[in-house]
Amino acid sequence: MDTSWQFDHMLVDGEISTAIAASPRIEFGPPPQLEGDDGCNKFGGEYVVTSDEHISIEVARITKIRCGIVDLETGKTTSIGDELFLEVLVNSARYGIQDAQLWIYSADSAQQR
To answer: What is the dihedral of CA 22, 92, 5, 2, to 10 degrees?
Structure first.
């Protein structure tokens, strides 16, 4: 796979979600290396691809920068989807490439491209 991909959108429960703080990306290096960012934090890990389009992604390290929107009334920071992006990656089950776009399908049916 040895290439870099920019996030476009995610399908969650059949609905298109673009609720991500910035533009996440993932770069598949020489197997098994991967790195990227979720729109806020950088991450790295490993991936395994089989010939039948199954993929397994493990995120082994991630920075922990405080990201999101701060509610000025409560002072709480809310995530804008960066956690969901990583959740779909680590729960990935298979992938496909269509029209020069990488589609990742998680085991719970969320999709992103």
So the answer is: 150
